[in-house]
């Protein structure tokens, strides 16, 4: 489910993402956050959902965001400057990760504090694996964002790896779930970083939030 975009929308987004996009810093504590001098969007999701791969696909770069087959590789809030117009924020994965309980709790505190207190945060994109659908930890994050009045939108990843009947069931369940969450965008968006599916439209969604 996704809205329609004009050729102009898609072209503006293509130009923005074809320009410079540079890693700024990794934030391990809120005192390290960069100045809130531009809007930003954050990418959240369970460990190994494909956040880094999707950021690389959006920006047309292979190594901008580090990817790994090991869940829990991203351990900080990683800020990327998109054309001096917008920050893209790659967040630590939640849920399963091969790290200590203490480290996992530290990440979770950082995530929650950031999401609740960042004034220039326009949207959180919650990435959901298109093969598996919503998990309890995803809904926990959605409830927390509802309470904090932080807007968010569901982005389905790895949709090229899903069977038609499986993803249709996931999307039906997702539509029903979204109706229960006040801060959720009413529409979700399908993507595949590997096949490029939905990437141009996702760029347009992000560009509109500058």
Give a verbal description of the structure:
- The protein has 210 residues and is of the alpha/beta class.
- The chain has one domain: P-loop containing nucleotide triphosphate hydrolases (Rossmann fold, 3-Layer(aba) Sandwich).
- Helix content is 36%, strand content 20%.
- It has 6 helices and 7 strands, in the order H-E-E-H-E-E-H-E-H-E-H-E-H.
- The chain has helices spanning 7-18, 51-59, 101-117, 136-148, 164-178, 199-207, and strands spanning 21-27, 40-45, 77-82, 86-90, 121-129, 152-157, 189-190.
- Residues 68-73 have low confidence and may be disordered.
Q: In a few lines, what is going on in this structure?
A:
The chain is of the alpha/beta class and 210 residues long. It is built from six helices and seven strands, in the order H-E-E-H-E-E-H-E-H-E-H-E-H.
Helical fraction: 25-40%
Low-confidence runs of at least 5 consecutive residues = 68-73
What's the CATH architecture? 3-Layer(aba) Sandwich
Let me know the number of strands: 7
Q: Tell me about the biggest sheet?
A: 7 strands, mixed
Question: What features would you highlight for this structure?
Answer:
single chain, 210 residues, alpha/beta, Rossmann fold, seven-stranded mixed beta sheet, 6 helices, 7 strands
Topology:
Layout lengths: L6 H12 L2 E7 L12 E6 L5 H9 L17 E6 L3 E5 L10 H17 L3 E9 L6 H13 L3 E6 L6 H15 L10 E2 L8 H9 L3
Parallel strand pairs: 2-4, 2-5, 5-6, 6-7
Antiparallel strand pairs: 1-3, 3-4
Helix pairs in contact: 1-6
């Amino acid at each position: 489910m996704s809205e329609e975009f004009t050729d102009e929308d898609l072209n503006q987004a293509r130009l923005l993402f074809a320009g410079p996009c540079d890693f700024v810093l990794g934030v391990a504590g809120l005192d390290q956050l960069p100045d809130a001098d531009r809007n930003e969007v954050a990418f959240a999701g369970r460990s190994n959902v494909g956040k880094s791969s999707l950021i690389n696909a959006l920006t047309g770069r292979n190594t901008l965001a580090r990817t790994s087959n090991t869940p829990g590789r991203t351990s900080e809030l990683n800020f990327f400057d998109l054309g001096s117009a917008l920050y893209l924020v790659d967040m630590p994965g939640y849920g399963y990760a091969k790290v200590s309980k203490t480290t996992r709790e530290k990440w979770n505190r950082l995530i929650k504090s950031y999401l609740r207190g960042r004034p220039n945060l326009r949207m959180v994109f919650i990435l959901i694996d298109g093969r598996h659908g919503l998990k309890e930890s995803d809904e926990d994050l959605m409830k927390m964002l509802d309470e904090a009045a932080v807007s968010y939108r569901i982005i389905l990843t790895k949709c090229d790896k899903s069977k038609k009947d499986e993803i249709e069931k996931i999307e039906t369940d997702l539509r029903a779930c979204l109706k229960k969450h006040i801060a959720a965008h009413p529409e979700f968006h399908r993507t595949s970083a590997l096949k490029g599916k939905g990437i141009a439209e996702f760029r347009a969604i992000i560009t509109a939030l500058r």
